[in-house]
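Researcher: Re-running this chain for the archive, since the previous output was lost when a drive failed. Same request as before.
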Amino acid sequence: MTIPTYKQCLDILKENNVPSNIVAHLNAVCDFSLKVCDLLERRGISVNKDLVAAGALLHDLKKLSPNDHVIEGFEYVKSIGFPEVAEIIKKHGLAHLDNPDFAPVTWEEKIVFYADKRVKNDRIVSVDERFAYIKQRYKKDDVENEMEFTKKIGYALLGDEKL
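Model: Regenerated structure tokens:
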């Protein structure tokens, strides 16, 4: 398994002209993801922190694409030699949750998925606040299923712990 370093991730973001506000979001998702990793490790659950960090740093690499940023990011990261990181990118979005190929399954996929849903811009918020923002920002009326899915992932990761 080949995983890009933090510096390589930043280089990839720079090469792809990712704006600073999105980079700030990516860094916040990475920081939150690593806190979740620490919590899971304290419970005896082994996770690949390097994979989580790279997935978190690159998950919105193609956010400004006119097409589906999840698929674009997945295909791009896979094409540059990081297929495991690409899988995390593929499974971070909400648009394809009804397709099992896009639903997070591994601990690493679930961590990045959940962390992304807890970070609004570059700050940690509740799932409810994040989904209120998603409804308003993306003009989605019905996000209840996606919100419930996210809360279930959060409970699987955190239990009753608060982060």
